[in-house]
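Appendix C: a fully annotated inverse folding record. The material below is reproduced so that readers can follow the format used throughout the book. The structure is listed first as tokens, followed by the designed sequence.
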């Protein structure tokens, strides 16, 4: 009887140890996944056309997506399809006394990952915990694989500070749709886009779509839906 009890206790002890091990392992994997952020998200489709591909935290850049890159005079790269409209918009801005510059165009996934990690590390250095730092980072930087910059269809536009100020952002907000560009992350759509207001981030969608979105005050998620 004593031997049976001893064996039963040993089996119970083994089960407890096994459960503790599994719990620790699960928490470790979950923590790593939280830090690396490897969500199960689907690939974006181009059923609405190439320029209307929806890239966000639920739709990643397809593995077979092909960019058609060209290099601007300042070294930034963009998809060649958006160049004529971008150049026309910049020419018209300069004619009116506004001087914009593209500060960020195409990024590959590795560069996007570096930017994301740098922002995350900055929040960690400010004293935020992992979860808080990650949430704050996601408000400002798209996760690798889910950034519009990886398509070449998006550009960050800032003023040439030697010639212009923040009035460049106002001009873009009021006029970019005429050239097929939209302010991708407006301040009144953050609950839909999941990204904080970015007055510099513009996405090419084509003139017809941009004009309709402007008229109806739609962000890209709403327009696609």
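Designed amino acids, in order:
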């Amino acid at each position: 009887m004593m031997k049976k009890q001893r064996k039963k206790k040993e089996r119970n002890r083994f089960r407890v140890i096994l459960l503790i091990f599994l719990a620790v392992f699960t928490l470790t994997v979950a923590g790593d996944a939280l830090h690396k952020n490897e969500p199960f998200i689907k690939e974006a489709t181009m059923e609405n056309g190439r320029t209307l591909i929806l890239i966000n935290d639920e739709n990643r850049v397809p593995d077979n997506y092909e960019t058609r890159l060209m290099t601007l005079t300042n070294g930034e790269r963009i998809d060649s399809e958006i160049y004529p409209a971008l150049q026309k918009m910049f020419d018209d801005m300069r004619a009116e006394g506004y001087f914009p510059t593209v500060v960020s165009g195409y990024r590959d996934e590795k560069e996007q990952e570096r930017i994301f990690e740098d922002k995350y590390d900055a929040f960690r250095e400010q004293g935020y915990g992992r979860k808080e730092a990650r949430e704050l980072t996601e408000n400002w930087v798209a996760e690798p694989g889910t950034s519009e910059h990886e398509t070449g269809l998006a550009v960050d536009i800032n003023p040439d500070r030697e010639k212009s100020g923040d009035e460049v952002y106002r001009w873009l907000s009021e006029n970019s749709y005429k050239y097929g560009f939209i302010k991708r992350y407006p301040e009144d759509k953050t609950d839909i886009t999941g990204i904080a207001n970015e007055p510099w981030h513009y996405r090419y969608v084509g003139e017809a779509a941009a004009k309709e979105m402007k008229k109806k005050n739609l962000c890209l998620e709403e327009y696609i839906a």
